[in-house]
Amino acid sequence: MSQTHRKDGGLIDQDKTITFTFNGQILRGCEGDTLASALLANNKHLVGRSFKYHRPRGIVTVGSEEPNAIMEIGSGAHKEPNTRATVTQLYNGLEANSQNHRGPLSFDLMAITDFFAPLLGAGFYYKTFMWPKAFWEKIYEPAIRNSAGLGTLSKEPDPDTYDKGFRYCDILIIGAGASGLSAALTAASSGAKVILADEDFLMGGRLNSGTAKVDNIPGSEWAKNAVAKLSAMDNVTLMSDTTIFGVYDHGIYGALENRSSESREDSNKPRQVNWRIYAKKSILCAGAIERSIAFGNNDRPGIMLAGAVRAYINRFAVATGEKVSVYTNNDDGWQTAKDLRTKGVRVVAVIDSRSISPVMPIQGAEIFMGTDVVDTKGRRALKSITLSNGKTIDTDSLAVSGGWNPNLHLTCHHRGIPKWNEEIASFIPDEATPPGMSVAGRAKGTMMLSDAIKEGHELGSTVASDLGYKASDLKAASTPAVPYNVVANWGVPSGKNRAWVDFQNDVTAKDVRLANQEGFKSVEHVKRYTTLGMATDQGKTANVLGIGIMAENMGQTMEETGTTIFRPPYSPVAIGAFAGRRRGMEFYPTRYTPSHKWSEEQGAVFVEVGMWYRSQWFPQPGETHWRQSVDREVIKTRSSVGICDVTTLGKIDIKGSDVSEFLNKVYVNAFAKLPVGKTRYGLMLREDSMAMDDGTTARLAEDHFVMTTTTANAVNVYRHLQFCHQILWPDLDVHMISVTEQYAQYAVAGPNSRRLLQKIVDPEHDISNEAFPFMGAGAITVCGGIPARLFRISFSGELAYEIAVPTRYGDALMRAMMEAGKEFDVVPYGTEALGVMRIEKGHAAGPELNGQTSAYDLGMGGMVSGKKDFIGYKLGQREELLRNDRMQMVGFKPVNKGDLVDKGHSMAGAHLLGLREEATTHNDQGWISSSIYSPMLGCYIGLGFIKDGLNRKGEFVRAVDLVRNSDIEVEICSPHFYDPEGGRLRV
Amino acid sequence: MIINHPLLGPRDSEEFVYLGSTDLINRPTNWEEEASAEDFYQYQYIRENIAGDHQELWYHEQGDQSWLVVTRNTLTHEISKVELAQDVSRAMGRGK
What we know:
CATH topology of chain B: Folate-binding fold
Distance between the termini of chain A: 93 Å
Structural class of chain B: alpha+beta
CATH superfamily of chain B: Folate-binding superfamily
Oligomer: heterodimer
Number of strands of chain A: 50
Strand order of the largest sheet of chain B: 3-4-5-6
């Protein structure tokens, strides 16, 4: 249980012990550890099983580029799979579990797949499992999905809170290593507003992983001092544990800040904050990522990248083994050997593939120059390596360095194309970086620390002065110049031993060669065919190695082969972080009507209509089924009086001397001569002549109109009117404003509606039939002086009015009307009863105005004025739209009145076919758009569209519903089922 | 994206609704002529798919409700010009 591989020192606090579990075993680490460093301190190298072959795998890196050490952290709803142990800060009670194995990690039953490796090469899905066809869905695919994979989800809703934030700065500096800190110091001291972000919880970059001295003190201390200095400056915001994951347009960056230590203390605090940062300029100082070499069996637990081994011993005081060997093609790998020796760790061998003299002496190690590693042994933990000269070396930890790749991911987010640089044997950023971004340090290909510091220092100054700040006179930090020499080495082809390139997706060098052989010659094709670079690590340690193998295999240059495109996010971002607080009821705003509170008191059932909550029906005691409530509301409204809240329908107040001319241009029918005090139904088309919306517009004065729209189109119609006003006819004197929310509006309908209203309308306003005829409109007062507007319009077909008051009186008016209506047995009615009544009357609504129907199709051809230009007129004259056998709106009722009553559903959605025709699309004549049970007719009825409908009244057809399995005979009839003469409206 | 509103300064594009090309400004005025059927057809349906500077209409729905003409490069997304659509329309002779 002790940390057998922990040494003294490091940047962790060895006095603060932390207890955690891995696969149920209790282990200990220190504050400042990551999960990975703590596991290594306990000599736990085996941490998972590979994606396809289920091979034992160990920790490879020390950063977010980690391909193997991905685990499930946490339990229950908090469980998060595929979490990289290398960037997970250790905390007390951390529960980690390895992924992708059946049975224990040490004895994965699925490891049998490794024996079938010859059959499971690149693209094997395309070449096998093809017969019999039926087996794919039921047998092969489930088996493959079961066997391959990463972690598992808890399947419970994410219980954590996420926040979104906005930050603004002059300069965003990405990466707080040597060059980033240097840039921040000069930029900030010039007075510029600076944000410095680093994905690590400890700023300092690789200064924390190494022993380089800066300004004569340990680099990690210099970094600590720089951070302290910056944190004291008002114009600097430090964001550690924050990944800049995306470079978007116009200087907008996406940043994900990890706040999980806070959210563990307090579940109301966000686990992560998704920041949108608006930066005038940015400086990318993201450093470099090391790559591996493809040699036989290079994927065993214990084989790691050399820079990582060095970071573990220096920053975390963890020895990755007791007899460590180093395999490198560059000078930097030697530094790992040297640092291990300094800490008293035994280095048994240094193998350098270059034919040069040894770079430095390494005490106790055998040195092999011009030599390669070709094979390894030790299935669950490295035991030995075999060299190209035939020698075998006993070793329990192999540190591999294939060279360093500038971390240029973010420079590619605007389709930057990296360029091959022969001197550092890697790709450097395209000169065309995203607008506003400059690059400094190793991310640019400036590999020497001394140069990287200078570059960051100068760039911070230059960018700040570009923005108008006075350049600072700070001096750059100094550090000895340490050269970086490298000779590219993609690995020696190792015969029958597989050499891994992409660890996470289990892609080997052989797969890359196979792809080329099968004709996939573009790097984009090779990526997708082999899946190299497509795992959660986006191939950060694998891509350049893969390109190298491909270039070598095809006899091309690296430049010719090129890279694939890096896209955001740089590292995985939880979906919750994109949602932020927009979850559940906060997904979007909830809009309540003025009568909502009153309706709740009545026990109304509500329905969501867009963001609105509308009363759907008002159940009375004893009613157990919604049909009872809805039928009752219809019958009582039609026999006495009912009230419905229609506030949600769009209301637009329009004033000006040219409004009637303007209305003429947006409606199909004429409005220029609408008298003051009258309202008129209007149909609005799109420019392509399809019906867009309908409503009524009232003229309250010569230059004052109020338009209504449907609920769903309130916003669109207003936007459309503004388009017409500002762009099409900019000099018409027209001013408009949306007043949907400013007025509460109620429909009061039924034979007793006038009597009810006369009890609340102030006596000086005569609303008798003579004084206020059908389609009248005007301003009145109610309840002793409250301003109101009255419109005598009817959606229900009964004698009806709509009354509007300023919203703040809405609740009171509803209560006053319900009180006044008691003597008439008034009922509140909801959207269902509203729908029943309009369908009984044959009024078109949303389901009929579906974007495919013209004015003529809706039976409103008579309204279309041929005497004026209006939106949709000309394109409505197209031949096809003037045919008289188009699908036209008519009514439908069952031939057998009782049909569908026992089934309990309407004809909505049914398609119309001839009596003896097969139910196929070929025979489809139309569809039923709206259908309800009519309490007034005692049967189901519907509105719909059928070919040549206007000429086929009286004919019988079938309404076929294949979803709900009904097929009934219906008669084509007039859509005006109830009071077709309209007599009830005019009393 | 950031749209530099001529009156309100730089605003996040989230405040706006995009409509389409400024071709939509040139609604034919010759509706009484037979030939205008073709003009309306072109107006409604035919667009050039520009790789480069594109003039387009944005509506500031979450702001001042002004329509804007934005010149945006479809390859780089750089916005080089933002004008009030009303001004552009009048300049094109659509006013009285």
